[in-house]
Specification:
The protein is of the alpha/beta class. It is built from 11 helices and 6 strands. Helix 1 packs across helix 11. The chain binds adenosine-5'-triphosphate and magnesium ion. This is Chromosome partitioning protein.
């Protein structure tokens, strides 16, 4: 899909929170799991975190029992033409007793934005502008992106300081990933400061030779743009999802829980460096 991003107008925003877009146009690689688990891990390390579901399929929202048919105010409201961000943030930021972070749910109408924003000037800047009204309240804002390249992904990348790319360590992992890198490259030509990206190997199974090969290939190709943390396969993630919780509420000593805690520390450390 072609994105017309040539009309992005550059505006500087003063912000405090580090905004991390969790993106990969490949489906089922661990984006939503990363957004929710990393969000909770950072919260447990005393960081104030907002997780935004920007995927029209609303998987993160449903995971936390925000069912699209019952939620009226969502991330979609941020994209209204005459949005009053201050009021909207107050209405869309939700809390759940099962997690420590704040959350903005998604809805299927987000998928209409491709068409609705067609003629909007600076359509790639909408989320970035909206976030400037709230970033002073958080240490981290994590954006769970949809699995395709389009106006939502562009908005998330433009708004972010870091694009975290979960890459499933299987042999199709790198297929098609170039499109995402090309999108980041094109945006970096027009953004005031380039967006960084860093890959997170996920669903790793050290017993499988193919997994080990792919991990080596990812490290060789991307070098320091790969996190040291590797997230292994852990069935506890599916258990957590099925019970509407994050892995820390199921088993905080499980491998997956500890690995996302390690990732959270790595992210905090990188910021201090
Ligand atoms: N490390 C892991 N080990 C085992 N299962 C995992 C792991 N990470 C995620 N899963 C499971 O894999 C499935 C897909 O994960 P997830 O929904 O996070 O991917 P996604 O990239 O957000 O998918 P989509 O592109 O459809 O939004 C889920 O059932 C999730 O519970
Ligand atoms: Mg998802």
């Amino acid at each position: 899909m072609e994105n017309d991003i040539s009309d992005i107008e550059l505006t500087e925003t003063v912000k405090h929170a580090k905004v991390i877009a969790i993106a990969n146009q490949k489906g089922g690689v661990g984006k939503t799991t990363t957004a929710l688990t990393l969000g909770e891990a950072l919260t447990r390390l005393n960081k104030k975190v907002l997780v935004i579901d920007l995927d029209p399929h609303a998987n993160a929202s449903v995971h936390l029992s925000f069912f699209p048919e019952t939620v009226t105010m969502t991330a979609h409201n941020l994209f209204f033409d005459d949005a009053n961000y201050k009021t909207i943030w107050l209405q869309i930021v939700q809390k759940r007793a099962t997690v420590g972070f704040d959350f903005v749910p998604a809805c299927i109408r987000l998928s209409e934005l491709e068409n609705d924003l067609k003629d909007r000037k600076n359509k790639g800047m909408v989320l970035s502008n909206a976030l400037s009204g709230i970033t002073d309240q958080y240490d981290y804002v994590l954006i769970d992106c949809p699995p395709h390249v389009g106006v939502l992904l562009v908005n998330a990348i433009v708004a972010s300081d870091l694009v975290l790319i979960p890459i499933q360590t299987d042999f199709l992992a790198l297929y098609g990933i170039r499109l995402l890198f090309d999108t980041i490259k094109v945006l970096n030509k027009v953004l005031p400061s380039p967006v960084k990206f860093k890959a997170l190997p996920t669903m790793y199974d050290g017993r499988a030779g193919a997994c080990r090969k792919i991990l080596n290939l990812i490290r060789r190709k991307l070098q320091d743009r790969v996190f040291s943390t590797v997230v292994h396969m852990d069935t506890k993630f599916r258990e957590a999802c099925a019970s509407g919780k994050v892995i820390y509420a199921i088993d905080e000593k499980s491998r997956g829980a500890l690995e996302y805690m390690q990732l959270a520390r790595e992210i905090i450390r990188n910021e201090d460096a």
